[in-house]
Amino acid sequence: MTMVAVIDCGISNVGSVRNAFEFLDIGSRLAQAPDDLKGCSHVVLPGDGSFPVGMRMLRERGLDHAITEAVHRGTPLLGICLGMQLMAEEGEEFELTRGLELTCGRVVRMAPSDPKLPMPQVGWNDVKFYRESHLSRGLGERASFYFMQSYAFADPSASAVAGVCDYGGPVVAVIEQGNLFGVQFHPEKSQQAGLALLKNFAAVE
Prior knowledge:
The protein has 205 residues and is α/β, with parallel strands linked by helices. It is 22% helix and 31% strand.
């Protein structure tokens, strides 16, 4: 039976994520402490705000180790927005901060080639999928999703990258590596494409 643990440590509005799973008739529960992950088949790490604050909140609750242990057991993990960034080795926002180190890479401030592009990037953008993946199943070669971001993974050509968007140059939008999944956009705010992606994630075994 699918039961998704939605990490709640005060760095995002988890209500909209749980509402999306409820709409899809997929069971979910809030995880505010390590024991809350027990018995869950999938884990979602949503997040808004800064990299250092996100990591501090996870560590204060012991959720950093709980997430890492779940991943090492083979539990599928989906990071959303800041949650995806926290899966990296480190982030440069405000100060160099060690991440969960679940996948290689550094999170850096976006530097669009067009100075007229506003920062942060807020709004809809097309994602081009590099390869067939669990998350993109049924979505074709590209789909539109809702973004809010100023930082992103530094290397859009890394082996874990499964999709990119264009914002004054290629920006990492999707990563997929074994049982690790990450999206820089907000699927819970991305209408039908976002719901399809969440349903695909919940179907990962």
